[in-house]
Amino acid sequence: MNDEAITLEALNVWNTPLFVSQLPDHEFLKEALLDLIYQQKAAQKTAIDSLVAPTAKHGMHESTLDFLDQEDPTVMETKRILEELTLEVAASLNHSFWPEEATADAHIIESWYHVTQKGGYHDVHSHPNCSWCGIYYLEPGDAATPGSGGLNRFYDPRINAEHYTDPGTAYLGAQGVWDFTPIEGQVVFFPSYLKHSALPYFGDKDRVVIAFNSIIELY
């Protein structure tokens, strides 16, 4: 009889990486960004100026998809910081796949604000034609207060993960979702294929975010 202990090695494959960071200089950027957002919100001709999936959005205002392209000093600095952080995210996962002599840059190709009022939400969706996406919580309003809603929900990308459920699959989670509580000044980064939503928000104070899509280029 072989009394040697059996060993098991866990192999984690097909993980979905998400990252979170506190935006440097948030306190210096916040008020100027909010002022600009509310000026532009007041001038909007329609609630969803982007004209992208308007029926998936309720109780919110959305800008056109070029918010961070404005030649405004505060906006330009915000974009620079977000691109720098996005590059750190991409490099941390991909540097071993890049040629040693290559120089990488992150480019935000689409960006927009959301101002969500009480009762607002954004249905489940993903972002095509980019590699990394981010949400900057400029002013999360009351979203951090339990029961106020406004969380960002991310959905398990493993399509068949819950095709069968018993105690052996408990680690997968009962709902196949992960909820992220918005915290002022934080940015959450996620791969573009990951479906997500903004849950109904019940706070009295506006929930304001800047979202963006980015690509990575090598030179």
Automatic annotation (TrEMBL):
Q: Which Pfam families match?
A: 2OG-FeII_Oxy_5 (PF13759)
Q: Which domain of life is it from?
A: Bacteria
**Which Gene3D superfamilies does the record cross-reference, listed alphabetically?**
q2cbj1_9rhob like domain
Q: Which InterPro entries is this protein grouped with?
A: CHP02466
- Protein name, UniProt field: Uncharacterized protein (TIGR02466 family)
- Please report the organism this UniProt entry assigns to the protein: Marinomonas pollencensis
